[in-house]
Design a protein that fits this description.
It is a single chain. By secondary structure, the protein is α+β, with helices and mostly antiparallel strands. The protein folds into 3 domains: 4-105, no CATH class; 126-176, SH3 type barrels (Roll); 184-277, Alpha-Beta Plaits (2-Layer Sandwich), CATH 3.30.70. Helices cover 49% and strands 26% of the residues. The chain is built from 7 helices and 11 strands. It has helices at residues 16-47, 55-80, 85-105, 107-122, 166-169, 198-211, 242-263; strands spanning 4-5, 8-9, 130-135, 138-147, 151-156, 161-165, 175-176, 184-192, 217-227, 230-239, 270-277. The strands form 3 sheets. The chain has a 5-stranded antiparallel β-sheet. A 4-stranded antiparallel β-sheet has the order 9-10-8-11, with helices on one face. The chain is rod-shaped, with a radius of gyration of 33 Å.
Length: 278
């Protein structure tokens, strides 16, 4: 396509005027792309402010992407201008080779970066959520302390920090114990001697559960084992989540000991509660 202005073909890259025109057009495109990229990242940071993302790292990546845009635009310009075509072809070939080498050398880092972006977009969990994940030490439970583009840090109940690459977080099955639709069942198992008042013990356990503000629903109190030295009773209640269930278990065991002593109910032993997450 020819565009003549006073006898000069301003869109002919072989002419000085055409080279200047293409430079202006491509420079404008680069500036527009950089502006759109910058605005998009700023909006994403505002929407994800509650995730406590490392903004310094995100801005660094943004600046790196802007530089890459200018580099790509320069090589496109060099490819279009006949006098610079050899430089453009050599540059594009070099960039291609360097991209392959860099991609192979940093595939784990790039994988973590892409996985981190995926986690920020789909949000299977947020900062502060309690998760159960599989770690080298086994099944671990903790709270999301920080979420960056490369790694997720999980703080356990015993103050340990588990650093998990985002590529692993994005590909493993985890249990989010903070979601609103989640609940847990707390089962407290106690033993009473054969000569104790069975009906009184059962009624005491059910009354204790009914009066607790942490109990969402009382499932019942059933005999789960019987032998020559005692009767095993299992009190089952629904709670909001497993964290509440753990707290409730300790409260139940303390209150059971006090109430049983007051009523003269003997316990050969107390079996710790089992928490089952459903």
């Amino acid at each position: 396509m020819n565009f003549q202005f006073k006898g000069i073909n301003v869109l002919n890259p072989a002419t000085f005027e055409g080279a200047v025109a293409y430079a202006i057009i491509l420079l404008t495109c680069a500036m527009f792309l950089n502006r759109m990229l910058r605005l998009g990242i700023e909006r994403a940071l505002k929407r994800g402010s509650h995730l406590h993302i490392d903004q310094a790292r995100v801005k660094f990546i943004s600046q790196l992407a802007q530089v890459l845009i200018y580099i790509v635009i320069f090589f496109v310009y060099a490819h279009l201008i006949p006098s610079l075509s050899n430089l453009g072809n050599a540059g594009l070939a070099s960039v291609g080779i360097l991209s392959v080498v860099a991609g192979m050398a940093a595939q784990n880092t790039l994988g973590n970066l892409i996985a981190g972006i995926s986690l920020l977009l789909y949000r299977p969990f947020n900062r502060g959520d309690r998760l159960k994940i599989m770690a080298p030490s086994g099944l671990e439970t903790g709270q999301i302390e920080s979420l960056s583009l490369g790694y997720t840090i999980l703080k356990t109940d015993d103050e340990r920090r588990i650093v998990v690459p985002n590529s692993i977080m994005a590909n493993q099955t985890m249990i989010n114990m903070t979601m609103d639709s989640f609940r847990a069942i707390c089962q407290t198992v106690v033993m009473i001697t054969l000569d104790s008042d069975f009906d009184a013990a059962k009624a005491l356990l059910l009354d204790m559960a009914a009066k607790s503000s942490k109990v969402k629903q009382v499932c019942g109190c059933a005999v789960t084992h019987l032998n020559g030295w005692g009767v095993e009773l299992t009190l089952s209640v629904w709670c909001a989540n497993s964290l509440v269930a753990g707290e409730l278990r300790s409260e139940f065991l303390e209150e059971i000991k006090k109430r049983f002593q007051d009523k003269g109910i003997k316990m050969p032993q107390v079996v710790s509660a089992n928490i089952k997450v459903i």
